[in-house]
């Protein structure tokens, strides 16, 4: 049975992955044998930290559409926005709040009373209160440690007094002095925070460091839920998220496609794919929808993705090489999992790297009956043209070559 991962509301989702379509072999199972299978909820921050990607500006309608997309994926929590940024952000939060989404909605605020009041005024019940806690950040802002502790205490206490469910989020916590880290988080708890987010603002923590920090916080925070908010500056955001979950984190922050500042945020669909397929952990994320969600977000935010990007890349199930085409009839020989899990077709394209099987597959796909010996000539022509044009061939070009060769 699927584990329920939408933690916050009664209308929980169950998304079952057809495990017969996962062809990852038994190595992971052997290596992970006997280990517990932890679970964690997904906290989407596409609307706030995702919008921090350079040049991205979401309008109210777009934020609402993105919130619905993310909700449709099955995340437990959505960070609806940071109201102090603009009136438009406030309008977007109102629109999202009125949309009747299944996910729990969260607001974002600095450790500043006016920021917290802005979240409360919009009727949100849950918020993250953030404050810098590394000396690098505090130094840049010219804020002393004692001052930030006071700001944390006052802002969290104000939120708690106003009935808000507060998570404290220590910006740059992975570069903070460990003792001061603990002081800052304990200050937040004493002031009324009931959840804690560990924040790898610059994506500098290796997975082992994330494991260390999550376990360290859990050792003194008891049952307080711990979040992990990661960035991808070293390409390790997914590995760090997995490390955080294995160490006991309850909530993983991230965005669709990992959209965000610099190298981006942790990529929630990629983490879901990893947990489901490599760790056998059910996430509640509907993998069949992630490619459509990614495609729509790319249209809205006007960015391109590498075609080989995990989970959502355009080329994941498109194959050119002849050696792979020769095995195309047995998908598990050439794929880690079935394209059907991501609700996308597989296909063969023709180019420099085509082989005899590529030609046979394409002929059958296009209903071309080539005479004996024609396939070899056709293959030679395909390679020649692809090298001359330095690209793949279109079906129309292939049909023309087939006509010339027959
Ligand atoms: C700043 C953050 O960490 S939020 C995350 C990043 N996100 C963004 O920047 C979103 C877009 N940003 C914006 O729209 C704007 O930059 C805003 C609304 C966030 C800030 O506006 P600004 O005009 O730059 O700053 P504002 O005058 O409101 O606040 C600066 C003060 O906040 C303090 N401050 C900054 N971050 C924090 C924090 N997390 N907690 C407490 N105080 C903080 C500064 O020390 C400064 O204090 P001072 O006035 O005593 O010197
Ligand atoms: O200070 C910021 O950029 C916002 C907080 C955040 O999302 C982070 O620290 O990763």
The tally of domains stands at 2
Task: List unreliable stretches of 5+ residues.
Answer: 1-12
Instruction: Please name the CATH topology of the largest domain.
Output: TIM Barrel
**Which range best describes the helical content: under 10%, 10-25%, 25-40%, 40-55%, 55-70% or over 70%?**
40-55%
Could you name the CATH homologous superfamily of the largest domain?
A: Aldolase class I
For the record, the CATH architecture of the largest domain stands as: Alpha-Beta Barrel
Bound molecules: acetyl coenzyme *A, 2-oxoglutaric acid
Structural class: alpha/beta
Largest sheet composition: 8 strands, parallel, barrel
Strand content: 5-15%
Radius of gyration: 25 Å
Number of strands: 10
**Mean pLDDT metric:** 94
Placed side by side, the strands forming the largest sheet appear as 1-2-3-4-5-6-7-8
Shape descriptor reads: elongated
Describe the structure.
- It catalyses: acetyl-CoA + 2-oxoglutarate + H2O = (2R)-homocitrate + CoA + H(+).
- With 406 residues, the chain is an alpha/beta fold.
- It folds into two domains: 19-301, Alpha-Beta Barrel (TIM Barrel); 318-405, no CATH class.
- 44% of the residues lie in helices and 12% in strands.
- The protein contains 17 helices and ten strands.
- It has an eight-stranded parallel beta barrel, surrounded by eight helices.
- Helix 9 links the parallel strand 6 and strand 7.
- It starts with 26 loop residues before the first helix and ends with a helix.
- The relative contact order is 0.11.
- Bound molecules: acetyl coenzyme *A and 2-oxoglutaric acid.
- Acetyl coenzyme *A is lined by residues 52, 82, 84-85, 110-112, 130-132, 141, 143, 151, 171.
